[in-house]
Amino acid sequence: MTQPEEQDPGPGRTTDESTGVADGGAEGVADAVSCASLSYAFGDTKAVDGLDLAVREGEVFGLLGPNGAGKTTAIRCVTTLLPVPAGKVRVFGHDAAKERMAVRRLLGYVPQQLSADQGLTGRENVALFARVFDVPRRERAARVAQALAADRLAGTYSGGMIRRLELAQALVSAPRLLILDEPTIGLDPIARTGVWEHINAVRAVTGMTVLVTTHYMDEADQYCDRVGLMHRGRIRALGTPAELRRGLAEHQGTDTLPTLEDVFRAIAGSGLDDTSGGGFRDVRSTRRTAHRVG
Amino acid sequence: MSAAPAAPRTESADHTDLLLTPPVPRAGWRLLPARVGAMCAVELQKLRHDRTELYTRAVQPALWLLIFGQTFTRIRAIPTGGVPYIDFMAPGIIAQSAMFIAIFYGIQIIWERDAGILNKLLVTPTPRSALITGKAFAAGVKSLIQAVVVIVIAAILGVALTWNPLRLLGVAAAVVLASAFFSCLSMTIAGIVISRDRLMGIGQAITMPLFFGSNALYPVSVMPGWLQAVSKVNPLSYQVDALRGLLLGTPSHLGADFAVLAVAAALGIAAASSLLGRLAR
Question: Which segments cross the bilayer (chain B) (predicted)?
């Protein structure tokens, strides 16, 4: 494995550090994801507004924030699904706007929606992703079997099973970066724990980086190494969950340690924030997922 | 970077745990056929799980041949150049039923978009043109199965078709190329209108004019001048002309037919690929 930063020491690097908190141990370690003043607008609505973000290799990074904060849009820019109209996005040093294929080879992606193909069996769903990642025929069956074993039509699966299937689809290509957009939305507590335990088990062996968005603060607190709290298109707070909670405690001058949810409320404000906009599509697809989960 | 996180990866790669090693990328020119193969395989797997579409789609062409074909054979109103009318229209019905399948692909790709399946495929190392080409050929595979069904029905009804394998291979090529074009036409419109409901309306609105504005049911010579002009730019006419020439041995322009179909398919793939990004937003 090469060090992508060395090939291209120029842009991106310096601006990443301007977020301040991301300085520790950055020397010699390539960032898995770096966004520098990334902006993306849907019409007049600025979904992402000058986002600076650095996800270190090997960590679980949680992107948190209220509906319409721009999390999903930012993630879609990182995955090359959306173009990068302003700013710079790099994945292991590869420019997401110019080297799309190189970026995609490194990614495993689980979108917010439950999106396994219902007309195929679990195994066929995973095999398709093995094929489009160029897994040679001779090792395809074995690789798929290692990722998942299932011969029922995915249409008959429960929500938790579909998520596990989607994880298998994303992991069959041994990605260096796993991107999950609200992976546990609509799942019961056991399925939620199951998803996280599976991710952590794979991470323990492969050392892959995980970038995840979630609305569940307890999950972020428990499973993320660092979190970034996004609001109105930008990161408003960054650090380990413990750092953020201690920070708020100092700010408020309280003795009892606040929860991550308190931090969320402090930054995103309470109640509905209609200026953040863009919420309808977010809510709609969330509802659709919840509906499919049943 | 070769320090901490990477170390376990290389070590346990020997323990045959495949999920620790990323697959080796295919060389550039081998990527496209591999993706096309993957898309076609998925299509066949879906058909294997649910064959109802295969049966229901056979009803309409069977009715065309049985009712329309047999009746018009008795009327003898259409100059077919000496062949019975049902023979004349059989290739037209093959082309029509294949087109109806292909036109559905735009709706399918919007459905896949709404279900999140398309987004996930777009994040794999698959160039957009390869994804569209794969879908286009998958439409071809499905149309091919449909063509076999129609040919069998026609044969049962006593249509004198060729069984020369080389000619049948030509038939397959014409069906696949035309289906690739029509599916790309539909996916191009999908990239423009984005919504499934609108596309369904447009699909309905264009299939009939394409069908009636072609030589599928009657020769170009009996059309009014303006319709002849429509037929001249309608790829369906070239497909029917090729199918008729190959299956019945009637005079045709195979060279021009295949050239038009190939160019139309290529243009369709280019147009649909360039608009696919809109569906990702």
Answer: 54-73, 93-111, 144-163, 169-194, 206-227, 258-277
